[in-house]
Amino acid sequence: MKHAVALFLLLMAVWLLNSGHYTVLITSFGVVSCLLVVWLARRMGIVDEEGVPIHLLPRLPMYLPWIAKEVVKANLDVSRRILGLGRLNISPRLFEAPTTQRTDLGRVLYANSITLTPGTVSIRVHGASITVHAIADEVADDLLGGEMDRRVTRLEGGGR
Amino acid sequence: MAGPIEVLSWVCILSGSVFVIIGGIGLLRLPDFYTRIHAAGITDTLGSWLILAGLMLHEGFTLGAAKLAMLLFFLLTTSPLSSHALAKAAFLRGLDPLQGRDLVDRHEVDDIA
Fold this sequence. Notes:
- The structure holds 2 protein chains of 2 kinds.
- Chain A is mostly helical.
- In chain A, 58% of the residues lie in helices and 12% in strands.
- Chain A has 6 helices and 3 strands, in the order αααβαββαα.
- Chain A has helices spanning 2-19, 24-43, 60-83, 104-116, 137-144, 147-156, and strands spanning 93-98, 120-126, 129-134.
- Chain A has a 3-stranded antiparallel sheet with strand order 1-3-2.
- Chain A is elongated.
- The mean pLDDT of chain A is 91.
- By secondary structure, chain B is mainly alpha-helical.
- Chain B has one domain.
- Chain B has helices at residues 4-29, 33-59, 63-92, 106-112, and strands spanning 98-99, 104-105.
- The model of chain B has no long low-confidence stretch (mean pLDDT 88).
- The A-B interface holds A 14, 17-18, 20, 71-72, 75, 78-79, 82-83, 88, 90-94, 111-113, 115-124, 131, 133, 135 and B 19, 22, 25-26, 29-32, 34-35, 37-39, 41-42, 45-46, 63, 66-67, 70, 76-77, 79-81, 83-84, 87-88, 91-92, 97-101, 103.
């Protein structure tokens, strides 16, 4: 129920911000369509901790600034490699990154964080490990250092 | 006379454009499919973020800025998904990445050995 209410509020916010028409008739159409979507989503069985992960919200403000900083750093790093004169300073590598997340949602967040950071792309998630392609050895070693893994596990509610 | 916010907005938009161009140069310079995804990643992340941030500063505190923020959120969640889908499709079809500083195709090495 908690998740259904959260989903409705989210849909309503998106509707209100995108509509721009606030007469009673039009707004009630919006309310009805949001209710319809929540009902459909419940019927599909996707209104749960995984589909509407509100339990992550309190810890998200800790994670977002960190990942944003990492993405900016990675952007500058890859830009430098691309613009470097002469031979490209790259050494691509395919490797397995271990994960410590408890849930599928946590692993998805980790894999997406890896892909969001330029220089690393997650290619396959199988069981508890992720196949990653990195543009250079240093980038790969940095990821294998495991800080991102630890932070996603903490975001998910596990770890220290 | 442009105010400081206006100046900041243009700085964001222009530097975002520079990153989009760097991504384009990367697409041309990098050697294979997998490394080119990383160049596209620059366009997807810092390039689009800076341009959207610049447009939000330009808009000020309006409904338009809220919509741009929404756009930023959707880009943030969908762009890694599309990169991953591309990479996974290529990998499952058996496209081998060039690896190491010498950019060797692992399969060719196996054939010679």
